[in-house]
Batch of 2 targets.
Target 1
Amino acid sequence: MRVIARRGRWAGVLTAFAFAGVGAVAPAPAAASTASTAPKPAPSLTEALISVGDLSHELKLIDRRLVGLEHALASLEKSVGGIGGSLASLEKSVGSIDGTLAPVGALVRPEGLRAALDPIVDSTLDRAFDRARGLLLLATACAAGLIVLHALMRRWTARPQRST
C-alpha cells in the first residue's frame, strides 16, 4: 500500500513539473501514448528494499488475520459441537414424547377407541339398566301400595252403619 502511495506521490510531483514547464496546458493525446510506451526506469535498491519491507509487513498482517480466522473457525466448530449436543438432547425429548403419545395414538384409531370405550359403555349401560330396574320396582311398589290403600279405604267407608 505504501509503495503505491509513494509512486502516486512521485507521479503527481512529476505531473506538476510537467504542467509547469508547458504553461499549465494539458498534454496532447499523442504525448500520453508515447509516455505509456516509454520503458519505466528500474527501481533503485532503496525503493526495492522499501517495497520488500512493505510486502513483509502486509504478509504479517495477512498472517495475523489468518490466525484470527483460525481461532474463529475453532470457536465456530465448538459452537457447532454444542449445537450437535443440543440436537441430540432434543431428539431424546422428542423420542420420549413419541413414547408418551403412543397410547393416545392407539386411542385415536377406531379399533383402539372402540377397545377403550367398550368397557366404559358397558359399565354405563349396566348402571343405567340397574337404575331403570330400581325405578320400575319402586313405581310397581308404589302402585301396589296405592291399590292396597284404595281397597282399605273402600272397605272402611263401605261398612254398614249400625243402627243405634
Target 2
Amino acid sequence: MKPVASQAIYLVMDCYPMTDSGVFRDFAGAMVGCWVRSDVCGAHEHTEAFARRRVSAAGWRVVSTLVYEEVSSNTYVDKSDGREFFEQAEIDGFVAHFHVRAREFIGELGDTGDDVSESLVRAADSIAIGGGFSLFCERDGQWANGVTPQGDEFLPFWISAEDAAEWIEFWPDYEVRGLTADELLTSDLLGRINAAEMWVAVGIGKRGLLTCHSRWPLERVTSAATCRGGLPDS
C-alpha cells in the first residue's frame, strides 16, 4: 500500500514590526512563509487565524495573506525550496520563516538627539494627528518616488513643509504638497503605495529619511482618527 502523504497549509504573509517589539528598530517589514500541519487546527478557516496569532506573538503585524495553499510531502519531491520547513512543521506543527527587510536610512543622519527609530515613532504620531507633506509633480500627476541603497522604491513623506522643501533639489520638477490626516485616509495613498510594493520613507530631521512599511503609519492615522470620534467619509 502506498503511504499517505503528509499534509500542511502553506501561507505567505506581508507584515510589519509592531512598535513595541524587539524587531521594530532594525526592520521595516517582512514576508513570512508559514507551514501549518493539517491536524494542528480543527478546520481550514481557523488555520490563517492561527498563523496570524503565531506571527503576532513574534512581534509582527500581519497586513495581508498573499498565498494560502495545501501542500504535502509530494509537493517537495522535486522541489527543495521550502522542503526543510515543511519537514520541520511535520514535527513541530508550525514553522514560520521570515524574509526581513532592514530599515534603510537615506540622506544625512544629523543630530536627532536619540535613536532614529524613536524619532520615526514621533514623526508618525505627528502625521497621524496633523498629516504631512510630500512632493508632487503637477505636470505628470504623480508623487515623488525614489530608490533606496538596497534597491527598494519609496515615497518620501515629511511632517513639515520646510523639511520637504529641503529635498526639492532631488526632485526639481516637483513642489511641496500637503495632506491632512483625513486626506491620507480618504485618498488611500498609503494603501496604493503598499499595493505598488513601495516603502514610505519618513523624514527624520531636515536631511534624513527612514524607511517603514506604508501600513504602519496608516495604522496610526486610523487609530488617531478613531480616537477623534470616527473615520472620515470616503
